[in-house]
Amino acid sequence: MQHTLIILDRDGVINHDSNAYIKNITEWQPISGSISAIARLKNAGYKVAVATNQAGMKRGLFSEEDLHAMHDKLNILLAAHGVSIDCIRYCPHLPEDNCNCRKPKPGLLQDISQTLSVPLANAYFVGDSAKDIQAAKVVGACPVLVRTGNGLKTFEENSELIKDVLICDDLNSFVNFLLKENQ
C-alpha cells in the first residue's frame, strides 16, 4: 500500500514538550532536525498534517491566538525550506468533555483525511504517546512511535500496545527510514 499522508502529533514530535504546556511562541521550540525532516517529506511528495490535543487552551493557559501564532511559527520555519504544513487540526477540549476530536478518538484524523482527500489507510501517524498510537490504530493508519517527548516513557510502559508499531528515535529518523524504504 502506498502511504501518501504523514500525520504528526505536535508536542514531543515536532517541538519540545512540557508538563506545564507549551503556551506561546517563545516556549514553542522545534526538536533538532524536525523542521528539515518535514521539509524532506514535503519535497518527496508527501502530504503532511498535524493533529494535536491542546487542552491548555480550555484550561485558560493560552488563547486561540497564541495557538495560531505557534502554528504560524512552524510554517515560517518551514517556509525557509520552501514548504508548509498541508493541514493543522487541534482539539481544545478537556479529557472529561468526551468530544470526538480528542485523541485517541478519531475525529481529528478523520477530519484531516476528509480535508486532504486521502484515506487513513494511506497514512502514517507519528506520535509520542499511547493516545497517538491508539488513534492511529482506531482509524487504520500506520502508527509510528518516536522516542522524543513522552515517547521513551510510552515505549517503556506500553509493551502490548506498541508490539506491532514502528519505533524511531525521532521524526528525522522516521523520515530517513521512510525515504530509504521508498527508494
Explain the overall architecture:
The chain has 183 residues and is an alpha/beta fold. It has a single domain, classed as Rossmann fold, CATH 3.40.50.1000. It has helices at residues 34-43, 64-79, 107-116, 130-139, 151-157, 171-181; strands at 5-8, 47-53, 87-91, 123-127, 142-146, 166-168. Strands 3-2-1-4-5-6 form a 6-stranded parallel β-sheet, with helices on both faces. Helix 4 (130-139) links the parallel strand 4 and strand 5 (142-146). It is globular, with a radius of gyration of 15 Å. The mean pLDDT is 97.
Largest sheet: 6 strands, parallel
Find the CATH superfamily: HAD superfamily/HAD-like
**Mean model confidence by pLDDT:** 97
* CATH class category label: Alpha Beta
Extract low-pLDDT stretches: none
Strand content: 15-25%
Sequence of strands across the biggest β-sheet: 3-2-1-4-5-6
Shape: globular
Number of helices: 6
Quantity of strands, as a count: 6
Radius of gyration: 15 Å
Succession of helices and strands = EHEHEHEHEHEH
Report how far apart the termini are: 15 Å
Secondary-structure content class: alpha/beta
CATH topology name: Rossmann fold
Structural domain tally:
1
CATH architecture designation: 3-Layer(aba) Sandwich
Helix content estimate: 25-40%
